[in-house]
Each structure stands twice: as structure tokens, then as C-alpha cells.
Design brief:
- The complex is a heterodimer of chains A (123) and B (296).
- Chain A has a domain of 75 residues.
- Chain A is built from four helices and six strands.
- Chain A is an alpha+beta fold and 123 residues long.
- Chain B folds into two domains: 112 residues, Roll (CBS-domain), CATH 3.10.580.10; 163 residues, Alpha-Beta Plaits.
- In chain B, strands 7-8-6-9-10 form a five-stranded mixed beta sheet, sandwiched between helices. In chain B, strands 5-4-3-11 form a four-stranded mixed beta sheet.
- Classes of the chains: A alpha+beta (123), B alpha+beta (296).
Chain lengths: 123, 296
């Protein structure tokens, strides 16, 4: 009864309220992580990605246009490519991302590469 | 010869790579066009078509939706060269450029409408300008050509005695008869004017003479409506390739050949002969540096 009375003041005039919730978090610079795969029908294309990347993280990413059934471009962190060459890294990324994404998607990927080296030294 | 520059749209509407697909789609709809050149700093960098727009998200930049390989043409190119380019690439429009700068657009529909004016509505054959263009094209391809010029005998009498409707029927039938005689691979038949038909062929002169004879015989042997007698006389002229020379005069060679064949057909008519061979002229080497088709 009281809620009914509370929702209407002065006869039939409704009472309107606004509730506000604020979530604060840091904007990542760059907003992508290690790799971004751009779907063929994604709302943002490779050229727009290039401009964004050039603006927020100049010279840190490589943009590669690809001929693929789902994706049309890949944006790869250059430091990753020092660890693993593009021809090794890209096919794996594409294979995994095409399982979870379609042409409309832009997929962000975090890639951890650990290199193990065992060397023997003559004593 | 008519050029692209004469029929292209000169008030050029262009867009920039930074424009959004949504904005350009609206612009194209408002302007009722199916494609727009994309220009950056005055240079042509792509073309955006309604097909590109349909398959892209409206949020995209034009830079991410446009076709980067643009088939361009120079305004000085002939309409037939433009048609060849359109058909070869399976596209709907060509951007005319001066250097890197777009100066106009020619659409397939505008081009075909203009070329349609060179097709004879009565017989469906192409006319004199197309004939000259074909002869030039064959010369440019390094071929030796011969021209058969065929003139119906006393055709004016058919028009006068039976009326123009019957005369037109006769012309249609002549076109059909001649079409059945020429060989698709080597001969190209045109209605040159009025009751004159012409063939440009890559056959040697003697073979062209035989073709002319077959054409004349086919007409006289055809069954015509009662009271109508149709006969024709033909002249033949051929071009023999000379040693390489300075190019650029090939159109004179074509004009010379047409004149020679035409005069020879008149001579045949006067002398009551079926075919007169005018002879051969030296064909000048054609400058093969064709400047028209180009892709940026």
C-alpha cells in the first residue's frame, strides 16, 4: 500500500527517480593486449585499427592484412614477434580464434610465450 | 572518334578515406549514384561502391570498405576502349583521371547508351564509326587487314517502287544473309551507311576477294519476295605490313583502305562486275604504347 502511495504523489502524477552506478577502472593503454584479430565484417576495419594503434601506441604494433575466411587483419605486438616469428604465431592465433569468433568480431588475445633453452657447455 | 571525356560526369562527387560508411551510404542514396571515387589530398586512392557498402559495417571508415584497385581511364580514350575495360573487369564504372587526379566518372549505362547510338536499330549491325574502330584495333594488334565494301545495286528503285517499309525488310534480310557468310573468327560485318555494308577481315587479300564474291553471290542467290531483285557489287582493298615505321598514322591507313574499297565497289557497279580488287597499300606500324587502360 505504501509503495503504491509512494509512486504517485499529487493524485496521478508519477514520481520519477534516477539511480546511478559508477564503475571506475583504468583505461588500458593500449586498449588491446598482445594481439587483435579483426573480423571481415567487424565494426572497425584494419585502417581504423591502424590509426588507433598509431595514436595510442606508436611503433609498438604490426598490422598485417590477411587472406582468411573470418578475419581480414591481425594486429600483433612487435615485441611478441621478436620471440616468435609471424609465420609461426599467426597460424596458431587464427586457428584458435576462428573457433570462438565470427566475421563480425574483433578478438583480443593475450599471448604468453616462454622460451626454454637448454644449453650444454664443454667444461 | 568519341572519347570518354565527352560523355563522363564532370561534376565529380568524391569522398575521403576518413568518412564513415554510414555517411557515404546516405550520400550515395541522396545523389542516386552507385559508386564514388575516394580521394585523399587530391589523389585517387580508391572507389566505394554500393556493393562495398552492403558488405561492410556502417561504423567502418571508408578506408576499410573501399576497393583499392581502381580501374581508371584517360578522358582521351575512345568509348570502345572504355567498354572493353568495363567488360574485362566486370565493373559498372570507370574513373577518368589526369595523372593521379580524378576528373570524371563514366558509368556502364551512360557508355552503353552512347554506344547504342552507333548500332543500327534496323539490322542490329554496328555502324561506320565502330567499323573504323575495329579496323584500327586489328591494326594495333599487329594484324594485316582487308576491307570489303559492298553496295546494293539500284536499291533506290526498291524504295521508290515498293516503299521504304519493304526496302527496310530487304536491308534486314541482306544483313542476315551477309551475317551467314562471314566467319566469326576473322570477319567483322557492319552496316556502313544506307545500302552499304562493310567487312573488315584479317584474311589475306585473295581470301578477302573470295569472301566478297561469296557475299555478292549469297545476295543474288537468296529468294526475295516477288517483284524484288536484289544484287550487289563489292570492292576490296587490303593492307600489307611494311617494315617498321614511325607510328601514329594508322588511322590514315584505315581511311585509305575504306576509300579504296568504296571506289572499287563503285567501279564494279559501273563495269557490271561482281567484285573489283583495288589492291594493297602499305600499313604503317602502329605505336603500340596504348595509353588508355591503366590501373592505379
Amino acid at each position: 500500500m505504501s509503495s503504491k502511495a509512494g509512486s504517485h504523489s499529487r493524485g496521478s502524477e508519477p514520481l520519477r527517480k534516477a539511480e546511478m552506478t559508477i564503475r571506475l577502472s583504468e583505461f588500458e593503454i593500449p586498449p588491446m593486449q598482445d594481439a587483435l584479430l579483426v573480423g571481415k565484417k567487424a565494426p572497425i576495419g584494419p585502417e581504423a585499427v591502424r590509426r588507433m594503434v598509431d595514436a595510442v601506441s606508436p611503433e609498438q604494433y604490426e598490422i598485417i592484412r590477411i587472406d582468411h575466411q573470418v578475419f581480414e587483419a591481425a594486429v600483433l605486438k612487435r615485441s611478441l614477434l621478436k620471440l616468435l616469428p609471424e609465420d609461426k604465431l599467426l597460424p596458431i592465433l587464427l586457428e584458435e580464434c576462428e573457433r570462438v569468433a565470427d566475421e563480425q568480431a574483433v578478438v583480443k588475445a593475450q599471448v604468453n610465450i616462454v622460451i626454454q633453452v637448454n644449453r650444454a657447455v664443454d667444461l | 572518334m568519341q572519347t570518354v571525356g565527352e560523355i563522363m560526369t564532370k561534376e565529380l562527387l568524391t569522398v575521403e578515406p576518413e568518412d564513415s560508411v554510414a555517411r557515404v551510404a546516405e550520400l550515395m542514396e541522396r545523389a542516386k549514384v552507385g559508386g564514388l571515387p575516394v580521394v585523399e589530398d587530391g589523389r585517387l586512392v580508391g572507389i566505394i561502391t554500393s556493393r562495398d557498402i552492403r558488405r561492410c559495417h556502417p561504423n567502418r571508415l571508408i578506408a576499410d570498405a573501399m576497393t583499392r584497385e581502381v580501374v581508371t581511364v584517360r578522358p582521351a580514350c575512345s568509348l570502345w576502349e572504355a567498354k572493353d575495360l568495363l567488360e574485362r573487369h566486370g565493373i559498372e564504372r570507370l574513373v577518368a583521371v589526369e595523372g593521379d587526379h580524378p576528373v570524371g566518372v563514366v558509368t556502364k549505362s551512360a557508355l552503353y547508351a552512347e554506344l547504342g547510338k552507333h548500332t543500327d536499330a534496323l539490322t542490329g549491325l554496328q555502324q561506320a564509326e565502330a567499323f573504323q574502330r575495329k579496323a584500327l584495333e586489328l591494326l594495333r594488334d599487329g594484324k594485316e587487314i582487308a576491307i570489303v565494301f559492298l553496295d546494293l545495286d539500284n536499291f533506290g528503285a526498291v524504295d521508290k517502287e515498293l516503299g521504304h517499309v519493304e526496302g527496310d525488310k530487304v536491308l534486314c534480310k541482306v544483313a542476315k544473309v551477309l551475317s551467314s557468310v562471314v566467319e566469326e573468327d576473322s570477319d567483322h560485318l557492319f552496316r556502313y551507311a544506307g545500302d552499304e555494308f562493310a567487312v573488315v577481315t584479317v584474311k589475306p587479300l585473295e581470301e578477302a576477294r573470295k569472301l566478297a564474291l561469296r557475299m555478292v553471290n549469297a545476295i543474288s542467290e537468296e529468294e526475295w519476295p516477288p517483284g524484288i531483285k536484289v544484287a550487289a557489287s563489292a570492292g576490296v582493298a587490303g593492307g600489307r605490313r611494311a617494315s617498321p615505321r614511325q607510328g601514329g598514322l594508322e588511322s590514315y591507313a584505315v581511311s585509305d583502305l575504306i576509300n579504296m574499297a568504296s571506289l572499287a565497289s563503285t567501279k564494279a557497279k559501273k563495269e557490271g562486275r561482281q567484285v573489283v580488287v583495288a589492291g594493297e597499300i602499305e600499313l604503317r606500324e602502329v605505336d603500340c604504347a596504348r595509353q588508355c587502360p591503366e590501373t592505379v
